[in-house]
Prior knowledge:
Blueprint lengths: L2 H36 L4 E15 L18 E12 L2 E5 L12 H9 L6 E7 L2 E6 L6 H29 L13
Antiparallel strand pairs: 1-2, 1-4, 2-3, 4-5
Amino acid sequence: MTPMQAKLLLGILGLTGLVAGIVAVGKGWPALSATLFELPGWNEVEGRVLAASLEAGDAAGARFSHDSRRSARSDVYRPKIEYAYTVDGKEYTSDRFSLIEMASSDRVAQQAIVDRYAVGTSVTVYVDPADPSRVVLDRESLMQPALLAGVGALFAVIGLALLIVLVVLVMKGYGTSSPGVGPA
């Protein structure tokens, strides 16, 4: 590999790592901040499942339908769990499963989530003490996007480091002198 090819490879790897890292951090940051700063202070109350179904939608996350038989046209799924809970004597209903609405192409895994919430069963609902209408059923699913943010940060740092190495090599003139020609 010539010095020019090495610099080009370093630049491509560095830029790719930096961009991929920034995108991953951007995708995972909401879950990471919720996991670290919001959810730990939320109260647990008992709730009751009113309805549970699997929603099917397109890959972009738009146009979800309660008809999970659309799988020929749909390629992502998410659980839709409706539940009731009471805070300070007032009853609320919600269908928010997680702080971050996520869908997956793994229909079996998403159906397994729905199957855990049989109608009429008791569930733990996590309630924002500042706003009792802001609730979630699941706070563990935030770990995957939070991990994405962490890995993204690592990629961004490595990519940035590679770009810094490239700049240093260019500034020092690595690979710019002709073979056999050098200082006397």
